[in-house]
Amino acid sequence: MSLLVRMIHLNDPNMRLYSSRQITPAIGFLYAGMHRRKAALTMIFQSLFCACACGIQFWVYGYSLYQSHTTGPFIGDLSLAGLHNVLASPSLANPDIPDILYAAFGFTFVTATAMILAGAMLERGRLFPSMLFLLCWTTFVYYVLAYFEWNPNGWLYKLGVYDFAGSGPVHIASGFSALAWALMLGRRKDPHGESIHPKVPHFKPHNPFLVGLGTILIWFGWFAFNGASTANLSLRSIYVVVNTNLAACGGGITWVLLEYLFHRKFSIIGFCSGIISGLVGITPAAGFVPVYVSALVGALTSTSSFFTVRYKHLLGVDEGLDIFAIHGVGGFVGDILTGFFAARFVPALDGRTNTYTGGWWDREWKQMGYQLAAATTCAAWSFVVSIVLLFVIDKIPGLHIRASEEDEIKGLDFKYLMDVEGDTMVLYGGGSVTPGFTAGSSERAGSSEGVVVPVGVEKRD
């Protein structure tokens, strides 16, 4: 017990770093399971890229752009570039938290956000242009919106917007940018008529187990994301964790009940989508709303995301991982619900914050206007800037954003990864590199040597 107390002590960085770091690869697992198996490994690769490349970018200039102490009216300067002099100086989040600790925590936010967005390339986006786009996107979308909301000089911060753990820069931005990316890429090819939806391409996920595993890791990591966003150890940080958990529960139960109502069956994919919808909805609200409405916040967010998914064909856009529905719409609804349910006593639980006046719950009617302004700003900025960035990148010779029809049909794993060589899978021991591929019955199980197994075209979908 003493070890647990020490780990979550205010001055111990383990509270911030242990759990939140896993979310980026966990999103990779989630997305890999939702892909067809011919492109699943590409998502794992992309999650590792986001963790590494966006982390280097964060060190070089990203942290300075949104957390520099001397700033301009629109974005921060480069005074903290390379984490120069980022040591024990008081952070902007809390004078008791050193800059270097808050920087380590912020590192996990940007990598996870980039990975949420990365799923929009879904089986037909070229890998190198997607990497360039993600680095440009974090620069011109994420860091700009993070500055607006999290830097004391940001205009949304000054306006008085309630966004506890990043609904705007993280979820709304990635969700609406995913919609823009899917729109620019166009629909996936379906030469064999395998889509299970008559109006938009939609294919059965190849591995619900990976989806479930990714969701479990994301759920656990979200406790650190939200709980540590109080920037101190207090009753409020524990309250935030309880709110987070109840919202996930409310979101998951609501989604599966709605699914059963329409289909008379449950699904692992649906349950996981509901849980994540609840987590998205509570992200802006966790440190502001009473605990007895958090499950309702999760349920309402899940409901809005469910019906967005159900009727997404009306948009005519092939956004098959539902990033827009769950993160974009869910984040927007979460912002609105925060303005509705925010109560002034919840922020005061940290022992430091006494300036919040609450939302409609406390008859503070103008707060809803602030929430709508923030959500609309994040949605519009991210969508428009993403369209511009993708258009420009696509016009650069050699950087067209969509894979060739041959590569798309064959599978991105076969195009980019040496783990999958041409028309063969390399097997080691008794398991295949990609889930779902197995050696023929004639091969001896448990062999310690590499075995090359032919893979027919019909096995790639």
From TrEMBL:
GO terms for molecular function: ammonium channel activity. It comes from the Eukaryota. It is found in: Cell membrane; Membrane. The chain crosses the membrane at residues 39-60, 100-120, 127-148, 168-186, 207-225, 237-258, 265-285, 291-311, 323-349, 369-393. Coiled coil: none annotated. GO terms for cellular component: plasma membrane. It is a multi-pass membrane protein. InterPro entries: Ammonium/urea_transptr, Ammonium_transpt, Ammonium_transpt_CS, NH4_transpt_AmtB-like_dom. Residues 24-414 form the Ammonium transporter AmtB-like domain. Its main location: membrane. Keywords: Ammonia transport, Membrane, Transmembrane, Transmembrane helix, Transport. PROSITE patterns: AMMONIUM_TRANSP. Belongs to the ammonia transporter channel (TC 1.A.11.2) family. This is Ammonium transporter. It comes from Sporormia fimetaria CBS 119925. The lineage of its organism: Eukaryota, Fungi, Dikarya, Ascomycota, Pezizomycotina.
